[in-house]
Specification:
The chain is of the alpha+beta class. The N and C termini lie far apart (60 Å). It is built from 8 helices and 12 strands. Bound molecules: dinuclear copper ion.
């Protein structure tokens, strides 16, 4: 068994390292702040590894090769240099390096005017509001954040009831969303691609089911997307729209360009554009949407949305078809 230990340890380490890539890894950075944090992690890991190796070497030396007792003077010198001077120097260097990294994580007001995105942690989803640079009206969406590559973006973070924490591991963060307080987090995404953000503070039953997608796009593609998001819904009326209004969906959801103007639940104006439903939990396809309408509390326990299991199948089909047209 003891002989197999190194192999087991190596296999475990490889498996762990294999998890260090992907859309939700802080060790596969796609932005300026996350790169700084990843560098700090590797510096600390390598440094800690070297110190650990050194300490183990001293332990081995003392235990196996040098079993005589040191003189009082040698012991005192060892404690002074190894126990006081060395840790003070290492920790001071580490502190200086950490402080040197910090200015890159500053509010946007110090970095000039840029894009601002308000994000509010809800139960259990993310309300996202883009504040255009030209001072136009805010553009609301949910659980789907798109960012321009190479541009500093300021996130304005709040919560109406309990504490959540906003974290996009490959881009940076995390930062708490605290009721009655506004926190600001500035991030600069560099590498276009798809990432995943999560809630990093226990906030209730479905805390672990509170994620969001982050798509980093080239500047012109982002501008086109934001301009499209500012438009009202393109879907025509029809039976699905009637079912939506007749069952009170409009009391909680907004579909811009229609009578639906509820503000309790996510804005659905461009729902069909979003890659996922229920805050990053299920794919955005007709089957998942029908399930979310019929049994939201099963998909995501303890959410505000009531179940619509009493709707007849043709009504659900019409509703799903209508929502699927909201581009
Ligand atoms: Cu929101 Cu945990």
């Amino acid at each position: 068994m003891t002989r197999a230990l190194p192999y087991i340890a190596c296999t475990g380490l490889l498996l762990l390292l294999a998890a260090c890539t992907g859309e939700q890894s802080a060790l596969a950075p796609g932005g300026v702040e996350a790169t700084a944090v990843a560098h700090l992690f590797w510096v600390m890991l390598v440094g800690a590894g070297m110190i650990w190796t050194g300490v183990m070497a001293v332990v081995l030396y003392a235990g196996r090769f040098k079993r005589t007792i040191h003189s009082h003077e040698t012991g005192g010198r060892l404690i002074l240099w190894g126990g006081a001077v060395f840790p003070v120097v290492v920790l001071t260097l580490l502190l200086a390096y950490g402080l040197w990294l910090m200015p890159s994580i500053r509010p946007i007001a110090e970095a000039g005017d840029g894009l601002r995105v308000e994000v509010s942690g809800e139960r259990f989803w993310w309300r996202v509001r883009y504040l255009p640079k030209d001072g136009g009206a805010p553009i609301e969406t949910a659980n789907d954040i798109r960012l321009p590559a190479g541009e500093r973006v300021e996130f304005v973070l709040t919560s109406p009831d309990v504490i959540h924490s906003f974290w996009i591991p490959p881009l940076g963060g995390k930062m708490d969303m605290i009721p009655g307080r506004t926190n600001r987090l500035t991030l600069e995404a560099e590498r276009p691609g798809s990432y995943r953000g999560v809630c990093a503070e226990f906030c209730g039953t479905s805390h672990a089911l509170m994620a969001f997608t982050v798509d980093v796009m080239e500047g012109p593609a982002f501008d086109t997307w934001l301009a499209a998001q500012a438009q009202p819904a393109q879907a025509a009326g029809g039976p699905g729209h009637d079912v939506f209004l007749a069952n009170g969906c409009a009391s909680c959801h907004t579909i811009r360009g229609t009578e639906a103007n509820g503000v309790i639940g996510p804005d659905l104006t461009h729902l069909a554009d979003r890659p996922t439903l229920a805050a990053g939990i299920i794919p955005n396809d007709p089957g998942s949407l029908a399930r979310l309408i019929r049994e939201p509390g099963v998909v995501k326990p303890d959410i505000h949305m009531p179940a619509y299991g009493m709707l007849a199948d043709p009504d659900v089909d019409a509703l799903v078809a209508y929502l699927g047209e909201l581009r």
